[in-house]
Design brief:
The protein has 199 residues and is of the alpha+beta class. The chain has a domain of 118 residues. A hairpin with a 7-residue loop joins strand 1 and strand 2. The termini are far apart.
Amino acid sequence: MGKDKYENEDLIAHGQPEDVWFHVDDLSSAHVYLRLKPGQTLDDIPDEILLECSSLVKANSIVGCKKSSVYVVYTRWKNLKKTGDMVDGQVGFHRPQNVRRMSAEKNNPIVNALNRTKEELHPDLRAEQQVRLLQIQSLKKVKHKNEMKQKRLADMEKKRVKEELSYDRVLTSDKMISNSDMKATADNTAAEEFEDDFF
């Protein structure tokens, strides 16, 4: 969670693809981030975690904390859009249709429990982001390498099956006999003799 607009700005700039951003809708509030595991989606967030994150942003909104209920919006960090004309802490969205909205009531017991277990850390968000992006790039390379290997194996198998079904190995000139080699006669007896030998 960002303590002020400057920390919020740092979080906006140096999030990770697995991060989910929470904020009170249409009011100033802290930015709260939830880090999912790789491969998880917004649908995988348990209801109690959504309740905790929404309660936290409501409690850390100067105007929102005084209201009995507010709306909270949340989306993936990669959906956040920051342009040069925006003030510190302000964001837009690349795809507004991917932003979810939920109602948040005043919930002091949850906020108090979170505050009791709170740890204040000051990580190097930029360095953490770079490490994660390198991991993702490395995983993509391994995946691509495996896909290319599978494609090569599939191509080799296709080629093998095609060669098995092909007549190219059988229809070679050294195994062929022309009509002139059969000493054909006017009444086709030589051809008939050849067919008898063949069977």
